[in-house]
């Protein structure tokens, strides 16, 4: 099953939900190793093709883009932090002065532009008025045929002075109006820039919150890396344990190949001789074509009868009694219901409907764990967790009564969970 997943680089979502967190980490680690192996083969093939001239070598283009930093007297990159240098004013005071100066200059520029417009308007207004008045006077003078030109000139001068006085008054009123508008505009620009500064500070706060979220994300990534590392350490530990304790399983499998009995296997397991001739053990002979995956309960029952019963799956060692931990085709919810009122370490083994194998359901202090047991070959092993291969299902259960399943969880099989109903849930398997 694991080889098929690595070949397709795909796992059925329903099968993925049956895996524990540790199993998922190990499966991801295996798939990543397979990706690296394929990539290295591709790179080696590319290098060989270039060496043999089958493909022109790749030429990297040189880039003329570069960055040159300003260096200080100490040879390091020159850095100045506003408000923290020798003799610098506090950052808040510098910021207030810059805002006020920018507002003043902007208001001054706008006031000068307004004054130029106002001055042109006043000049045109009084120039036109004076011209009209002169034309009126000349028309009246020539109409009444005034002989006293001096009186007309005096009158003209008096009128000129009057208009000049009114022009000066109008200029003063315009200047005062422009000055008031300049002050008002300066205040408006000051508050606009002040609000922009406050919004900038709010943006800095959002940036700090984003950095905090980024830090938490990195911490979560590191935690996943640590879990993957623990899974790899567990894989190595169980591999070493398999080397140290794998003699029994290896000899058990060898005796099965030679047709030896359970009694000889038990003598090797407990390291003491026993009298009596060996009894032959029936090996499964497959007389049907097994599908790639279970498709129905009827197919699962046939698989168990034709392949698992000859291998004594679900029986206690060296007896014809069904093991108390063995159950039939039951769901995850039914298994958790049976383990609900039991203490930590309680367990049961049920036939899986997802793969050709079993599911070991384990009671935690708070919650449950479910481990898939692959039985599609000539051995039994946890899918993605335990590298050890066991000759029988009972060997796997007995092994993990002494050895934990995973390092992170420390699961040790202690109390088997038996049947609650009558007839038992496995009665269809033995009919």
Automatic annotation (TrEMBL):
Nucleotidyltransferase listed as a keyword: no
Keyword check for rRNA processing: no
Domain SH2 residues, every copy: 325-417
Residue ranges, annotated region (Disordered): 202-228
Pfam family, one: SH2
SMART domains per record: SH2
InterPro entries xrefs: SH2, SH2_dom_sf, SH2D4B_SH2
Compositionally biased region (Basic and acidic residues): 203-228
Alphabetically ordered keywords of this record: SH2 domain
A GO-annotated cellular component: cytoplasm
Gene3D superfamilies cross-referenced by the UniProt entry: SH2 domain (3.30.505.10)
Name of this protein: SH2 domain-containing protein 4B isoform X2
Species of the source: Phyllostomus discolor
């Amino acid at each position: 099953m694991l080889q098929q997943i690595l070949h397709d680089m795909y796992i059925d979502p329903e099968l993925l939900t049956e895996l524990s967190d540790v199993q998922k980490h190990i499966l991801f680690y295996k798939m990543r190793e397979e990706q690296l192996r394929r990539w290295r083969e591709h790179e080696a093939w590319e290098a060989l093709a270039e060496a043999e001239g089958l493909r022109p070598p790749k030429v990297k283009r040189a880039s003329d883009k570069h960055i040159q930093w300003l260096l200080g007297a100490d040879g390091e990159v020159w850095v100045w932090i506003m408000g923290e240098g020798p003799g610098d004013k506090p950052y808040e005071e510098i910021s207030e002065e810059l805002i006020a100066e920018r507002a003043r200059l902007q208001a001054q520029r706008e006031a000068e532009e307004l004054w130029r417009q106002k001055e042109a308007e006043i000049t045109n207004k009084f120039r036109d008025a004076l011209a009209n008045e002169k034309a009126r006077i000349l028309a009246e003078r020539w109409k009444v045929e005034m002989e006293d030109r001096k009186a007309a000139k005096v009158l003209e001068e008096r009128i000129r002075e009057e208009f000049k006085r009114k022009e000066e008054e109008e200029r003063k009123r315009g200047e005062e109006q422009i000055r008031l508008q300049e002050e008002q505009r300066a205040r408006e620009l000051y508050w606009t820039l002040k609000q922009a500064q406050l919004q900038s500070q709010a943006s800095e706060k959002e940036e700090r919150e984003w950095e905090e979220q980024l830090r938490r994300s990195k911490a979560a990534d590191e935690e996943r890396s640590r879990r993957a590392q623990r899974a790899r350490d567990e894989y190595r530990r169980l591999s070493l344990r398999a080397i140290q304790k794998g003699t029994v399983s290896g000899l058990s499998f060898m005796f099965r190949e030679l047709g030896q009995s359970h009694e000889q296997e038990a003598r090797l397991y407990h390291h003491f001789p026993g009298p009596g001739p060996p009894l032959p053990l029936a090996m499964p002979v497959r007389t049907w074509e097994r599908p790639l995956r279970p498709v129905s309960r009827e197919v699962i029952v046939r698989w168990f009868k034709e392949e698992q019963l000859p291998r004594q799956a679900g029986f206690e060692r060296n007896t014809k009694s069904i093991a108390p931990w063995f159950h039939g085709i039951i769901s995850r919810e039914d298994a958790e219901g049976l383990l609900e009122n039991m203490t930590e370490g309680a367990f049961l083994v049920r036939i899986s409907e997802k793969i050709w194998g079993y599911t070991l359901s384990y009671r935690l202090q708070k919650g449950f764990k479910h481990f898939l047991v692959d039985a599609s070959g000539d051995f039994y092993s946890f899918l993605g967790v335990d590298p050890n291969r066991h000759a029988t299902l009972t060997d796997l259960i007995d092994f993990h009564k002494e050895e934990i399943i995973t390092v992170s969880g420390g699961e040790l099989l202690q109390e088997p969970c038996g049947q609650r109903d009558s007839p038992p849930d496995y009665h269809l398997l033995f009919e």
